Amino acid sequence: MNKDVIVLSLGGSVVLSDDVDHLFFEEFKEFIQKLSKKFKVFLIIGGGKTARTYIDIGRKQGFSEYELDYLGILSTRLNASFLSTLLSSSNKLIPESVDEAIQITDSIVVMGGTSPGHSTDFVGACIASKTNAKMYIIATNVDGVYDKDPRKHPDAKHLPEVSIDALLDEYGNSWNVAGKNMVIDGPALQQIKDFSIPTFVVDGRNINEVKNIIEEKSFRGTIIKK
After folding, report:
1. How does pLDDT run across 189-201, given as a tens digit for each residue?
2. Which of 25, 73, 165, 193 maximizes the CB count within 10 A of its CB?
């Protein structure tokens, strides 16, 4: 019998940041390997600080948005290679398209970005729609969606749930510029709406909260409603 699919989009800053240590990787590895015994798991990893550094420098040098996007994509694939090595039971060759990824038979499939013009969150949403995923979890470095950026505004209000239409009204459905740091980008939001994908936003550094979502328990994060 085919396994249900879980799609997990990881912000690059969740996996590689200044304050992540080896204990996180041990916990993450154990969690994903256990999860893959019950579910088919797709892990899509963003570019994080590595991508933003290259993009910032490239923009100052006059690189085009296409060129900057491509630098970001290469950064995501480097991060994906790290994760696939960490997770010994996953694919070793990093797929460069959604169609290529969904053909891989491993229980754990790791990938980064695909082509310029959208983020890895959009890639995850495409995989979720094509595999009829049980759920799509966006694991970022904040504990859900807020009414404004909590890293800049101490009075920001956490939203336990938010409608997809409200997010589309706020962010739109188009891709703006490479390296923009937002919870979910426009193309991903539109894909989530078009295919009614069950979507959750959570702090990916707190693995217990990710577990709670999968086990359908109470969690600290945000449910994106239709």
Report:
1. 999 999 999 999 9
2. 73
